[in-house]
Design a protein that fits this description.
The chain has about 280 residues and is α/β, with parallel strands linked by helices. Homodimer.
Length: about 280
């Protein structure tokens, strides 16, 4: 495995692999089984697998956890190599953002729901780094987990509407044995919170059952929120039932829906969802 820190070096290496397909796994590091699942899918479908590790400051707002976001680069490099990654791109902030000419990328109405409603500017920063990485790597396929379902929906729309060459591949959520979605932020949970956190998935399953029984979205959202707060110390940020991937209210023409939740614990905020 080759570790690369500069854009120029990375592109020189990729150019030498002309004629081979490239699968790209963008991450913010502190790797877990969810990230490695993305790598597994990429290996199965491509000749070369490239991973980036970059904690993107552009997607963190004031007071958010950029400085405290968990990092362990040596461990990440070891895990990536063991998983079969060919190249790991680990740029500095200066390498990724040497200039700022004031040009911005603004997401559409999808960004006004779910996490975007309480994190203004977050998805501006996500699209900024994603576009830069896609331009740098020029991957044939790019792999994203379904846990960040809003992010995935916005990136899919971005790639479609702006004719970007890469194909976005959805990868299912990877969970702990007790159902908690894998997340780099899970390490910030207290022992009590960690014991309670699986109630999030249990609430989603309950919500899916209510949906199949024909309950209205507002009733389902209320039942799911009450289930979580009744069995944990977590505070509800949102519970939403929307069409997917448009993230708009459900209509008679909706084919796919998402039930998504965000729950705040003392030091971290967990998200999860179920697609129906």
């Amino acid at each position: 495995m080759i570790v690369v820190e500069t854009i120029e070096e990375l592109q020189q290496l990729i150019n030498k692999k002309a004629g081979k397909t490239v699968g790209f796994v963008p991450t913010m590091g502190f790797l877990h089984e969810g990230h490695l699942s993305l790598v597994k899918h990429a290996i199965e479908q491509n000749d070369i697998v490239m991973m980036s590790i970059f904690v993107n400051p552009a997607q963190f707002g004031p007071g958010e956890d950029f400085e405290s976001y968990p990092r362990d680069l040596d461990r990440d490099i070891t895990l990536a190599e063991e998983a079969g990654v060919d190249f790991v791109f680990i740029p500095s902030v200066q390498e990724m953002y040497p200039f700022d000419g004031g040009i911005r990328i603004l997401p559409g109405p999808q960004a006004d729901e779910l996490c975007g409603a309480s994190r203004p500017g977050h998805f501006d920063g996500v699209l900024k780094v994603v576009l830069k990485l896609f331009n740098i790597v020029d991957p044939d396929r790019s792999y994203f987990g379904m846990k960040d379902a809003q992010q995935l929906a916005i990136i899919e729309t971005f790639v479609r509407d702006f004719n970007l060459r890469t194909k976005i591949v959805r990868v299912p959520i990877v969970r702990e044995d007790d159902g908690l979605a894998k997340s780099s932020r899970n390490v910030n949970l207290t022992p009590e919170e960690r014991n309670q956190a699986p109630i999030i998935q249990q609430a989603l399953i309950k919500g899916a059952e209510l949906y199949s029984n024909g309950l209205k979205p507002v009733q389902i959202e209320k039942e799911v929120a009450n289930f979580i707060t009744g069995g944990s110390v977590g505070e509800i940020d949102y519970v939403k039932l929307l069409s997917y991937p448009s993230l708009q209210p459900i209509t008679s023409e909706t084919n796919e829906v998402i039930l998504a939740v965000a729950v705040k614990f003392s030091k971290t905020r967990l998200i999860d969802n179920i697609i129906m």
